[in-house]
Amino acid sequence: MQLVESGGGLVQPGGSLRLSCASSGSSLYYYAISWFRQAPGKEREEVSCINSSDGSTSYADSVKGRFTISKNNAKNTAYLQMNSLKPEDTALYSCAARRGCGSSYIPYRGQGTQVTVSS
């Protein structure tokens, strides 16, 4: 499986972006998808996850109420809708696939897409 992210860019504070995570080589149907982000000099943070089994979702407190994760199995693509963006959301965002959101083993990761929030 290869994961390719897109949709990043430069946006003003308060703006929105939708990131996409497209899979090739394997269906996303059986995988939980997570979005991570890493800002320069900071640890990688898991932003959100969506389970394959029941579609349940989880979010970091820092993005709760602003970000929404979703998955379209027919298109083999997962999304992260980001609203009310703040400068502290600036980071390299990447997606990952694993068996479940609680699994520590992450076999598939994308290269990431840069999000910059600045006026």
Structural write-up:
With 119 residues, the chain is an all-beta fold. It has no helices and eleven strands. The radius of gyration is 13 Å and the shape is globular. The chain has strands at 2-6, 9-11, 17-24, 32-38, 45-50, 57-59, 67-72, 77-82, 91-98, 108-109, 113-117. It is 0% helix and 50% strand. The strands form two sheets. Strands 2, 4, 5, 6, 9, 10 and 11 form a seven-stranded mixed sheet that branches. A four-stranded antiparallel sheet has the order 1-3-8-7, with no helix packed on it. Strand 4 (32-38) and strand 5 form a beta hairpin.
Q: Quickly count the helices.
A: 0
Main β-sheet description: 7 strands, mixed
Average per-residue pLDDT, rounded, comes to 95
Give me the secondary-structure category. mainly beta
- Write down how many β-strands occur, each being a DSSP E stretch of 2 or more residues: 11
Distance between the termini: 37 Å
Q: SSE order, as H and E?
A: EEEEEEEEEEE
The gyration radius over C-alpha positions equals: 13 Å
Globular, elongated, flat, extended or rod-shaped: what is the shape? globular
Q: Percent of residues in beta strands?
A: over 45%
Helical content class: under 10%
Notable traits:
11 strands; 7-stranded mixed β-sheet; mainly beta; 119 residues
Summarize the structure in short.
The protein is mainly β and 119 residues long.
